[in-house]
Amino acid sequence: MLPAFEQVAALFHDCGVDVSRETYEMMEVYAAFLVAYNEKVNLTAVTEGNEILRKHFLDSMLLAVKCGSYLPEGGAVLDIGSGAGFPGVPLCIVRPDLDITLLDSLNKRIVFLDALREKLGITYRTIHGRAEELARKQEYRERFDAVTARAVAAMPVLAEYSLPFVKQNGYWMAMKGPNEEIRPALQGIRMLGGHSEEDVRYSLPGGDERVIFVVKKCSPTPTKYPRNSGQIRQKPL
Prior knowledge:
By secondary structure, the protein is of the alpha/beta class. The chain has a domain at 71-234: Rossmann fold. 38% of the residues lie in helices and 22% in strands. The protein has a seven-stranded mixed beta sheet with strand order 3-2-1-4-5-7-6, sandwiched between helices. Helix 2 packs antiparallel against helix 5 and helix 3 crosses helix 4 (88-94). The model has no long low-confidence stretch (mean pLDDT 96).
């Protein structure tokens, strides 16, 4: 359902992503499985081949290009709110050295991600649970070199979900559309031990604009954070 390999490889190369035939074949399997599965479980509103290619696969893989310096070789990466696997699964495909964990609060999405892993023959972990609860557990708190999140929630809310998982000197990367700003979240980011590192802005083929807000974890997150979900949403930091 994707365009021919040569067309895809040229498109991705122009964006700085080199795609092998093996990677292309994995994307083909992924896209077909996603569209078929989406008929019984709502995973994505994007179901046309070219759109999946640009808005899901390319956008996710560009994280490794635009923010590669924040993803250390062999690093532990947590993807919060993975949904249909973006950006975590494409990141796993292009950076197999990374130790990637996908987290989602809905078990039906985790079931999909587990089945997808078997189809693609790649390695990643999945966790079913709520970020604000898991971040209080010692096995997850401040254990990751990098944490990613794509859309999910507004920045002030997402910061409290994400930063408690990041180890000191690690990074949180929030993938957003062009209309969201980091400014409303800056106070909360500081309270959680973070510092805004840079805003990485780019456009996808076709003109869709994107921004990745990169936040460095400079000091431990105070133990009172994250709060419960109601508090986080009703009164963001």
